Structure formats: C-alpha cells, structure tokens
Amino acid sequence: MYTTQDIAAIRTQVRQWRLAGKTVAFVPTMGNLHQGHITLVTEALKRADHVVVSIFVNPMQFGQNEDLDAYPRTLAADQAALEAAGAELLFTPTPAIIYPKGMDKQTFVEVPGLSEELCGASRPGHFRGVATIVCKLFNIVQPDLALFGKKDFQQLMVIKAMVEDLSLPIEIVGVDTIRESSGLAMSSRNGYLSEAQKQQAAQLKRTLDEMAEAIAQGQAIPNVVQHAQEQLHHAGFKPDYLSVRNAADLSEVQADDKQLVILAAAFMGSTRLIDNLSFERA
C-alpha cells in the first residue's frame, strides 16, 4: 500500500487505473480505525478493482468544545490494518494541505434542511464541515463509488443529497453498522469509555430494538419515545436526542409512512454516542 500526502500523486495513480479500464472505490475516514472501517474496505474491494482510503481528522466538522485535539491519531496501526485489508492507496493530508488559505477563507458546501436538525442542531456547523471535506476529497480522488457506514445515518443522507444536488458522478454505498458482541455500535469514540461504561452503553441498542418492536405493534410514537428516554436515563445516559423519522428523507413521520428509522444520540459520561435502527411499520 502506498501512502502519500500529495494530491497530485493521488490523481496520477487514479488516472493510471482509469486508463487501464479499472474502477475505483473510496473510503474516507478520520483514522483510529476499527472493524467497521475495515468492513468498508472489504466491501469496497467487492465492488471495485482498486480502493483508495483517506485519513484526515477534519477540523471543520468539530465544534469549539469538541474533542479535536484529543481525537486519537493511530497512523501506524491504521496503515497496517488497511494494508492487510487490501487497500492500495492511502491519502493522509494535513489541514494545511486541505485548507491552505485557512478555514475562514475556505469555500464551503452546505446541504440545507438535512444539516440543521438532530446532530446538526446539537453540533452547529458540523455537517457543513462534513459536506465540504467529503466534496473536496471526492474532487481529489474522483472515485466511481464511495462507501460510508450506516451508523452515521444522518451523515449518509447529507452526503447522498450533496452528490445528487451537485450532480457528482459517484455512487454512494451505505454499509450496515458493525457492532461489538454486546450490541454497541463500533465507534472510534468507544475508546473513551471505561469497560463498565461500555457495558452500560450497550443499552442504547437494546432500547432502539424495543422501540422498533413497540412502534411496529402500533404503539403511539410519542409514548414510545418518552418511555425510551426514561430507560436511557435509568441506564446512565444523558440523552441528546431520540427521534423517529421517515427513513427516506428524515422528515417527520406521517400516518402512512412505513419505512422508518430511529435516531439517537446520548452521552455516556462525557462521551457522545450515536446509533440508529431502520425498520418497517405494518
């Protein structure tokens, strides 16, 4: 696997692959990789001839009081895991390479509506940072397809909307959430949890499962949400939001909507965890 910070080197290699008639998949990450990220690479290799991965801790998507400086950087371990998984090209730019004029003078991309609620309401400007960096990475790598985990369901929806709105010729593939044996969704932020907190945090997925079953059986959504919030408090969480939405566009649920998604964000101690569950209502 070849690792580079050079944009021109990325473009040259991708151009050579394209001239040979090969397809290119792209997996953008912030590093500190876990099995969820490796699954994205494995799935990418099933769908394309070559796989490019990026590692970039994007300062534009972090708020003032968030964990940018504390976010784990584990490049050597990440390189070893990616090479073992079959990735061939790793792009590891610095903020100075990505934002040479500084973030204050950087053109940005913003998806209206979707970016302003749920995680967007809790983390103002977060999805502007996500859309901007993903769009920029897409323009650098120019892949045929890009893969993202469904754990970050709202992020996936934002990226799909951006690609559609800007007519980018890239297929966006969502890959199912990879979970620990307890049910806890794998996340780089799980490393902030103690072992006891990890066991407590597994209640988040169990709560989502119980919510989906109750709603599918016809219970009123507001009642289900209220009961679930009480459960999370009892389990040691401080809920940020807990919402049931239309799975197609994250709009508020209407009476005849069948494909739904529950989205949750909650703090376990100082660590903010997110999860979601898609399901069908009869």
What does this structure look like?
The model has no long low-confidence stretch (mean pLDDT 97). The longest helix is centred in the middle third of the chain and has 16 residues, at 126-141. It contains 10 helices and 9 strands. The chain folds into 2 domains: 2-175, 3-Layer(aba) Sandwich (Rossmann fold); 188-280, Pantoate--beta-alanine Ligase, Chain: A,domain 2 (2-Layer Sandwich), CATH 3.30.1300. α2 (35-47) links the parallel β2 (24-29) and β3. 36% of the residues are buried. It is an alpha/beta fold and 282 residues long. A 6-stranded parallel sheet has the order 1-4-3-2-5-6, with helices on both faces. A 3-stranded antiparallel sheet has the order 7-8-9, covered by helices on one side. The chain has helices at residues 7-19, 35-47, 75-85, 95-98, 119-122, 126-141, 153-165, 195-201, 203-216, 221-234; strands spanning 2-4, 24-29, 50-55, 89-91, 145-149, 171-175, 237-246, 259-268, 271-280. The N and C termini lie far apart (48 Å). 39% of the residues lie in helices and 21% in strands. It is found in: Cytoplasm. Catalyzes the condensation of pantoate with beta-alanine in an ATP-dependent reaction via a pantoyl-adenylate intermediate. Beta-alanine binds at residue 61. Keywords: ATP-binding, Cytoplasm, Ligase, Nucleotide-binding, Pantothenate biosynthesis.
